[in-house]
Specification:
- With 207 residues, the chain is α+β, with helices and mostly antiparallel strands.
- It contains six helices and seven strands.
- The strands form two sheets. The chain has a five-stranded antiparallel sheet.
- α3 packs antiparallel against α4 (111-141).
- The chain is elongated, with a radius of gyration of 21 Å.
């Protein structure tokens, strides 16, 4: 196996990078993650959307966020307000910047820039999950001592991925439309870099 950093990206890779840029741009305007809450007393369920221009929003035209904040009050959790989190304000800007980066890489057909784009996007993904975990940890563990309902030893950290039982509530955390688009963009980037830079088998021996 060898690596080839010279030359320009192929036309097919250029098209794929444009697609990745479009997917990333769309994700800046829609939620990337969602947390679904269901309980016997809320059979219709509630949804918390994360990402997009609103930063944080609730399902049912925003009413779910109001309900969630009411429930938070009873167990001592902080209320959720989009303006309280700089990450949610910055996310659409960051995703927009990545979209531009992918499009620029596509049009100038630069291999090294495609590698830099992949590395930067990967770091962004890791840091995003670390920050998301930190936010859910603080959100679920920093409880008010004056809460009307206190359960000794209980914390209410929602899962960052998957399902978790929180008292009578079942919480399911999963990607939303924007999150799936970002995953696809990441897969496309990885494919382009491997396709353009890595030389396998007999081709590597010939070179």
């Amino acid at each position: 196996m060898k690596f080839n950093f010279t030359g320009k990206l192929s036309k097919s890779s250029m098209i794929l990078l444009i697609v990745a840029g479009i997917f990333t741009a769309i994700s800046a305007f829609t939620s990337v993650w969602r947390i679904d809450l269901s309980a016997p007393q809320y059979p219709e369920g509630m949804v918390l959307y994360i990402g997009g221009l609103d930063g944080v929003s609730g399902g049912d035209e925003g009413n779910d966020l109001y309900k969630i904040n009411e429930l938070n009050h009873y167990v001592g959790m902080a209320q959720i307000h989009p303006g309280d989190f700089w990450e949610f304000t910055a996310l659409p800007i960051i995703l927009g910047a990545f979209a531009v980066l992918f499009l620029v890489t596509a049009f100038i057909k630069n291999k090294k820039l495609s590698i830099a784009s992949l590395v930067a996007f990967g770091i962004f993904g890791v840091l995003g999950f670390v920050d998301f975990y930190h936010w859910t940890y603080v959100y679920g563990h920093n409880l008010s001592p004056d809460a009307p309902i206190k359960v000794p030893g209980m914390s209410y950290q929602p899962p960052i991925l998957g399902e978790k039982q929180l008292l009578s509530f079942d919480a399911l955390s999963q990607p939303n439309v924007g999150g799936y688009l970002l995953m696809l963009a990441g897969v496309i980037l990885l494919y382009v870099v491997v396709k353009e830079v890595v030389i396998f088998g007999n081709k590597a021996k010939q070179n």
